[in-house]
Amino acid sequence: MTTNPFATTIVDTLFDSTANTGTNLMGTAMRLLAAGEPITIEQLATAAGASVADVENAPAAADIEYDDRHRILGWGLTLNPTPHRFTVDGHQLYTWCAADTLLFPAIIGRPATVESTCAATGTTIRLSVDPASGVSGLDPATAVISVPGPDELDPTRVRATTCNPGRYFATAVAAADWQSRHPTGLVLPVADAYAQLRPISDRVLTATEPPRCR
User: Fold this and answer.
1) Per 3-state DSSP, what percentage of the chain is helix, strand, and coil (rounded to 5)?
2) Which chemical reaction does it catalyze (predicted)?
3) How many whole angstroms separate alpha carbon 190 and alpha carbon 136?
4) 163 is catalytic
């Protein structure tokens, strides 16, 4: 499998082995949010076996979306609309970036249907993503996604620097302007992106696995 510099940077910077608690919290939050309802910090901490204080030091914590009751609405997977519609078990959800739509089915353990919009042409892009079998039903089949260069990541502004630049495009040609503005970034066919980015979801899953009996 081709090594992807974006995936390597995310794993090494946001989800390194010293950040297991935070990675576990983020993965657990996604699984809870997949039910389509806001979650409290206390609910999340209990489910993750962590403390409320641990949330503040978790990956992309500064970007967590809250409602007016300080319940979590979004953390990668979100209840707030974005260009990336992500439907799980009939629940209409959204993701922060195009790559998330490929990563999150494995993390939450549920298949999803995805609908996004080409950032250049407005073309609707549809696909299904299964945690076991991967991508299917991609329409148009020429669709690609963009992932920013590893040098663009700012751990204090993850959504702005890493998520927002990640978009779907109907074709590689449609992504040419994006590529010129992100010279260290990559434009990948969707199937290739799914395979190359899988180390990110694998890392989150490793951090959220229950300890094995010895």
Assistant:
1) 45, 20, 35
2) an alkylmercury + H(+) = an alkane + Hg(2+)
3) 10
4) yes
The question of whether 177 is a catalytic residue gets the answer: no
Q: For residue 147, report the phi and psi dihedrals to the nearest 5 degrees.
A: -130, 130
Annotated catalytic residue within 63, 100, 139, 213? 100
Band of the pLDDT at 3, cuts 50, 70, 90? low
Give dist(CA 145, CA 39) in Å, integer: 30
What is the rounded distance in angstroms from the CA atom of residue 59 to the CA atom of residue 12?
12
Per-residue pLDDT of 39-50, as tens digits, reads: 999 999 999 999
Contact between 187 and 172 (Cβ < 8 Å): yes
Place of tokens 């950040």: 19
Paired sense of beta strands 168-169 and 144-147, if any: antiparallel
From the candidates 68, 97, 139, 151, give the one annotated as an active-site residue.
97
CATH architecture assigned to 3-206: 2-Layer Sandwich (3.30)
Q: How far apart are CA 15 and CA 60, in angstroms?
A: 10
Q: Is 97 a catalytic residue?
A: yes
Domain boundaries, the chain: 3-206
Find the radius of gyration of the CA atoms of the chain. Answer: 16
Is residue 48 within 8 Å of residue 204, measured between CB atoms? no
Given the residues 54, 63, 118, 163, select the one marked as catalytic: 163
pLDDT score recorded for residue 76 = 97
